[in-house]
Amino acid sequence: MGVRRRNYDIMIVGGGMCGGALALEMQALGLKVALIEMQPPHTGPSQPERVIALSYGSRCHFDALGVWQDIKALGVAPIKQISVNEADNRGCVQLHHQQANIDALGYVVENAHVLKSLYKHLEGKVDMYCPASVRSMSLEDDAAHIIVRDSKREKRLKGSLVVAADGTNSQIRNMAGIGAFGWDHNRFGIVASVTPEKSHDHTAFECFRSSGPLALLPLDEKRFSIVWTLKPEEASRTLSMPDVMFLRRLSRAIGADLRGRLGDMVETGPRACFPFELRQARRRTAKRLALIGNAAHTLHPVAGQGLNLGMRDVRTLADAVGAAVRGRRDVGAMIVLEAYEGGRMADNASVIGFTEGLNALFNNELAPVRFARGWGLEGLQQLPSAKDWLLRHAAGLSQMRA
Ligand SMILES: Cc1cc2nc3c(=O)[nH]c(=O)nc-3n(C[C@H](O)[C@H](O)[C@H](O)COP(=O)(O)OP(=O)(O)OC[C@H]3O[C@@H](n4cnc5c(N)ncnc54)[C@H](O)[C@@H]3O)c2cc1C
């Protein structure tokens, strides 16, 4: 008996936050959507909690998709202020939500909560292949074909457009022969949930150190979720050291000023470690194919922009496909893909430039550069127009739909 073929408008490979959000956008346009995810559904809590700082712009996007209330019900922590400093150097920039006339500059959310809310809204609206993997793909002039395999059998799927949302090591990007460039930062991030002695007052701290940034994101009323950038050998030592020693090292690492404000770190949960790299796809489209999220770009998390950038990929692709639907045109046509590719260039380049520039600036240990940085942070704090620019970028307001 032959294998039955199923027809779709859009076939999305990768059911992470970007793939899930795109699936919701596409079904809302009245399109028939297949979502193929390799891992069995895992929307339960992770240890340590994996969290994302969502910009105000991304929060509005989730709101428009109808999932923000569900994410909020599962627990979000608003970021009322952002404080940027360099450990044991002068200068500090403070951004406050009231300066931007919004409730919060961003929100710290658990990845698992976002996924759970997205999947709840996708149920019954898209065809889920999960857990399933892609065995082959061919991108033809008139349609795309993929063969997926789940635990039981292979299925042939045909559609107008394939979307690769399958993360940094995208299998679909490789199958399409699209190269990626970038570099390894030779740094790892230690992630953990920690409690300081004093209240964080819903402030997110970005503390630059010689090995890289240490981010402290308010996770709930008391705790922070930290991403602590370390050199590889330091990271492996820090990962395995006893809790007491870890807390002592962390309390020292935040520097005297922050310790004065927050006190010592007194409690920690489990730790995990992630490598940091920059990876950028050479193109983000091919015949009947579009790349979104980490499949298109993986950033250093210094500025917390990876998912926020990915969510803007989702929005631009949905806009381009939406225009084709309204014009009763082929949703996988080259003109749609060109609109998407063109629409993402400037934002992508500016976020990568900002992230890498910030990293390079604070990685320089030359005394004059360190001195200038201290003055620079102090000057920025006094300069309303520069602060306003930073505020709008941090909150994701500059890139919001008019
Ligand atoms: C420590 C750390 C902190 C971060 N903090 C922030 C932050 O504060 N703010 C922010 O905006 N970003 C942050 N990021 C970046 C953010 O996590 C990513 O940009 C985001 O998760 C990318 O989402 P995605 O859906 O594109 O990819 P992923 O989350 O990688 O999802 C890809 C999905 O595809 C599936 N998949 C993979 N291969 C296949 C296949 N062959 N077939 C089918 N399915 C497949 C995977 O199982 C997964 O579900 C951080 C990253 C790290 C490492």
Description:
This protein has 402 residues and is an alpha+beta fold. It has a single domain (5-181, 276-394), classed as FAD/NAD(P)-binding domain. It is built from 12 helices and 20 strands. The chain has helices spanning 17-28, 56-64, 68-74, 111-122, 171-175, 232-240, 243-253, 255-262, 306-326, 334-363, 367-382, 384-394, and strands spanning 5-13, 33-36, 51-55, 76-79, 81-86, 92-96, 106-110, 127-129, 133-139, 144-149, 154-164, 180-196, 203-209, 212-218, 224-230, 265-268, 272-281, 285-286, 289-291, 297-298. The strands form 3 sheets. Strands 5, 6, 12, 13, 14, 15, 16, 17 and 20 form a 9-stranded mixed sheet that branches. Strands 1, 2, 8, 9, 10, 11, 18 and 19 form an 8-stranded mixed sheet that branches. A hairpin with a 4-residue loop joins strand 10 (144-149) and strand 11 (154-164). The structure holds flavin-adenine dinucleotide. Flavin-adenine dinucleotide is lined by residues 13-19, 36-39, 52-53, 133-134, 165-167, 171, 189, 191, 227, 274, 293-294, 301, 304-308, 310.
Distance between the termini: 53 Å
Compute the number of helices. Answer: 12
Fourth-level CATH superfamily: FAD/NAD(P)-binding domain
| Beta content | 25-35%
Would you state the CATH class? Alpha Beta
Number of strands: 20
